[in-house]
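If I may wish for something, please walk me through the protein I am sending here so I can picture the backbone:
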Amino acid sequence: MQELEKMMNMISIKKCAVVIVATVLAGALLAYVFANQSKPTFHGIGVLKGADSFAYIGDFVEYQIRVYNPSDFDLYNINVTDDMLGLNDTIPFMAAGNTTGCTYTFHREVLEEDPNPLINEVFVEAVDSGGVYSSASTQAITIIAERLIDISKVGPHSAYRGETIEYTIVVNNTGNVDLFDVVVEDELLGFSWNGDLSEGESNVFNLTYRVPCDVEETLINTATVWVQINETTFYAEASWLTKILYPCIYPHSKGYWKNHPEEWPVDWIEIGDDNYTKDEAIDILEGASAKDATRMLAAQLIAAELNRLSGTCPNFCYCDEPVDIDEIIEDADEFLTEYPLGSDPQDEKRQNALQLKDLLDAYNNSKCD
């Protein structure tokens, strides 16, 4: 009897426990449903805008506008307006919670008539899937700085590989104060200058540069200037683009031109005051004699002129020194004008002819530089 009562009590306890658990679960479910039903929903639209913090007149300020949807509702037909940038666009759809959104990028030149600071505002508006209208706006502020220093750079519009070209760099103190420890640099040219510029003062630098034979289709060279005033750095730069006309062609030796008349770019050639046909010039190449310096010089001069007429680069190194072969060709031609072919000059004049011959020979057998 006691065992029966004990079993009945245990069954009652289990039933009670089941009822309690069921009650707790039901209460939790009701609480979850209530919490979700009472959670506030968010309507709205977002816009962010960035721009350069300062710029000079004539600079281009970069603006970035990002429109996004931080709300709990889809957005339709979002109007994006920025009068200063001429932006008037419509985004058809943006899903709820899309914080990446859509980004616009613009570049605008700072004009002399622009107010300072330059304030640019963007405005967005849309209606969401809940039928609620939302709008937002934001500003980007750019300070138009006084240009205390300026730099310009001018060079050739085109050049051959191996050619020596000239650049002119002009640095101006455009402010109303003296500038100290101004730094001008041109990395490509290996140039650096440090000095002072009084109010309104300019400094001009004329620099040369030999175009490498491995340069690509264009050569871009940038010069920079900067100065520090009260822990603020003022900086300017100027670039110049030079178009490379054609690839560097290596010279050929005297023997090459003697054995390949079909490759000659001309049918006659001028040596000193005399003109020679191709056949006559080949005879000079074949008959170069160590006894007569003018014949040796003329043979190397013919080869050098044929090389340059074929488009070879004019510069090479001789004894570790840069040489412009066009200058040597001119000197050799003048020598053979004064001492024609076969005149066999002696003593100092012979040595002069041999020196010119050696330079021409070195060029004709070089790989340019």
